[in-house]
Amino acid sequence: MLIAGFSLDCERLPAALPIWRATVRSETWAVVARGVATKGGRLVALWGSDRTRGAAGGLVVSAAYAVREGLLWLDLPLAERGASYPDLAPLFPCAGRMQRAAADLVGIAADGAVDRRPWLAHGAWPAASFPLRRDASAGGAEAAREVTDYAFVRVEGDGVHEIPVGPVHAGIIEPGHFRFSVVGEKVLRLEQRLGYKHKGIEQRFTDLSPLDGYRLAGRVSGDSTVAYAWAYCMALESVAGCAVPARAVWLRALFLERERIANHLGDLGALGNDAAFAFGLAQFSRLREDWLRLSKEAFGHRLMMDCVVPGGVLADVERALADRLVRQCDTIEREVRDLRQVYDEHSGLQDRFMTTGQVLPQLAARLGLTGLAGRASAQAADLRCDQSWAPYDQLAVKMATRTGGDVAARVAVRFDEVFESLRLIRTILLRLGESDGGSEIRGDLRLPAKVALGAGWVEGWRGEVFVALEWDGERGANRIRRCHCHDPSWQNWPVLEHAVIGNIVPDFPLINKSFNLSYAGHDL
């Protein structure tokens, strides 16, 4: 089959979006990667797996690419000795950290990789042990590898000094270490050290019933609970060949758009506050709180956790509640339009926002900047538009993009997406009220008695969330062999290092918040 311009022996997974999978050899792995990069495709995820089953199988490295036809999932089986594969970092710079994580967790290495420092391994497990290998042992504290200093890149020269920040921060935020090399207040270089939130989520999936895995997926990154739960359920439904009731699909979109708005409202207030505009924080915090309270009343949870379940959804929307949700949309839209005018006309805010933390379109394309931050740098990619799945194929989503690539552009995209999501919610609620497709909100899901693969791909508020699922139903095993969850923060954290160059240190919190990347979703 011809995918991304290559003739590959692909199978199409029975997913809601067009997702293709193929097993390739080392030469094909490198050729396809080069071809995808040349044609402007994106690397969505890279991960390793141990598919050893008795005397068969072995280590595998996998990559998922976003191409014109949809998503292309490639598996490259590796030799038992060496367990190496061609390096993708020269073509996709964001692959570097993903490859380092795969080396820490599975023990597979990228041939010719320049950076081989550990990424997720902070001395919590033995150096010769790999947590996602079949033969991995739990070990104890006495067996852990020696904790050594991380080899940060040093910048030398007259007047250059370092400012270490974190992983413990002054505010109530997640842990991450930032090493600034500065002259005066001007940033010459930033280097990040992440992985402090690593908690073994991928291994934990293999201990859970597949029908309970959605709860863990929804807690990978709490601000994206709907997106992760939907992606996991899509992968599981793909494995089972389960048809999701039409009403449930519309309700999932309702939850996803409410999640998007909740996060944008929070960010718009925080960005105002980081620019010393406390009024913005107060107003947007009030609006977000009203939004979350109605979500709690309507769906049982402020963040709508556990509302998306395998086969459908847990909660429906009655007519009276739908009317309240529409009225809230009207109220929020009026107030956000007024606040946008305040933001746009406030000279102090605009002075802090404009040209700050700029990532020009050319750099964004080269580094693979994705999601909301990518769209603010002219990277026009949104699954709701590009590979629209039900019900987005009936909603004609208008993509919000900007070309400036600075904090101002990322703020503008948030405002635009709030208004578009409000429109979508009204349309969804109208469609639910008119629905004649029955009231069923959850379908039966029966997993096959064989080995099967499934994938989920959803446009969350931060960017595209991807879940790859390997199911083993042979000989009564009935267990998840591997579940890899991928957050768009993997692509965007390295770009933040470039965005701060040439800016002053006090602007870093503002730039960082304008990206608002996940630590937990990245570290797993």
Looking at this protein, list some descriptive labels.
524 residues, alpha+beta, 5-stranded mixed β-sheet, 3-stranded antiparallel β-sheet, 39% helix, globular
Q: What would you note in describing this structure?
A:
- This protein is α+β, with helices and mostly antiparallel strands.
- Helix content is 39%, strand content 18%.
- It has 16 helices and 17 strands.
- The strands form six sheets. It has a five-stranded mixed beta sheet with strand order 3-4-7-6-5. It has a three-stranded antiparallel beta sheet with strand order 10-11-12. A three-stranded antiparallel beta sheet has the order 15-16-17.
- A hairpin with a 2-residue loop joins β11 and β12 (186-193).
- α6 runs antiparallel to α15.
Topology:
Layout lengths: L1 E2 L2 E2 L3 E2 L6 E5 L2 H13 L3 E9 L8 E9 L2 E8 L6 E3 L8 H12 L2 E3 L48 E6 L11 E7 L2 E8 L7 H5 L7 H5 L7 H16 L5 H29 L3 H22 L8 E2 L2 E2 L5 H27 L1 H7 L7 H7 L3 H5 L7 H4 L20 H28 L16 E9 L4 E9 L6 E8 L2 H11 L8 H8 L4 H4 L1
Parallel strand pairs: 4-7, 8-9
Antiparallel strand pairs: 1-2, 3-4, 5-6, 6-7, 10-11, 11-12, 13-14, 15-16, 16-17
Helix content: 25-40%
Distance separating the two termini? 35 Å
Strand arrangement, largest sheet? 3-4-7-6-5
How does the helix and strand content classify structurally? alpha+beta
The multimeric state of the shown protein is single chain
- Please report the number of helical segments: 16
Let me know the largest β-sheet: 5 strands, mixed
